[in-house]
Amino acid sequence: MEKLTKVEEEIMQIIWQLERCTVRDVIDSLNQKPAPPHSTISSVVRILEKKGFLDHKAYGRTYEYFPIISKEEYSKRSVSSLVQNYFGGSVKRLVSFLVKKENLSTQDINDMIQQLEDSDQKPTNND
């Protein structure tokens, strides 16, 4: 999966939220004054389609776009890439970094441990 630029990711965040939308819907959701040109957003959306993030359904000359890569899947791959590229593939190093740089409290860390323990205890579909 290709990486997204900052602008592409901003547009994808909107499309993930809307689920199905036109370019006009995306422009309206940006809440920018003045609004960006339709052609600019349309170009970004077509790039996202070429990169395999979106597909569309045509209604005459109007295209309705929808994501074919979920936000969760993109997030998973982005975090995996972050861990690989900046922390030598070590999740422990990432967590250690976050603990030091984000000044996590003991309670925050205990909450994360509890979440991990809870997720370990959930039954899997392989039973």
Structure description:
The chain has 6 helices and 2 strands, in the order αααββααα. With 127 residues, it is mostly helical. It has 2 domains: 6-67, Arc Repressor Mutant, subunit A (Orthogonal Bundle), CATH 1.10.10.10; 88-122. The radius of gyration is 19 Å and the shape is elongated. It starts with 5 loop residues before the first helix and ends in a 6-residue tail after the last helix. 13% of the residues are buried.
The number of strands is 2
CATH architecture of the largest domain: Orthogonal Bundle
Question: If strands are numbered along the chain, what order do they take across the biggest sheet?
Answer: 1-2
Main sheet: strands, sense, barrel:
2 strands, antiparallel
| CATH fold descriptor of the largest domain | Arc Repressor Mutant, subunit A
Gross geometry: elongated
N→C terminal distance = 32 Å
Give the name of the CATH superfamily of the largest domain. Winged helix-like DNA-binding domain superfamily/Winged helix DNA-binding domain
Highest CATH level, the class of the largest domain: Mainly Alpha
Helix count, DSSP H or I runs of 4 or more residues: 6
Total number of distinct structural domains: 2
Uncertain segments are none
Secondary structure: helix percent: 55-70%
On the 0 to 100 scale, the average pLDDT is: 90
Strand residue content: 5-15%
Structure classification? mainly alpha
In sequence order, what are the helices and strands, one letter per element? Answer: HHHEEHHH
Q: Calculate Rg over CA atoms.
A: 19 Å
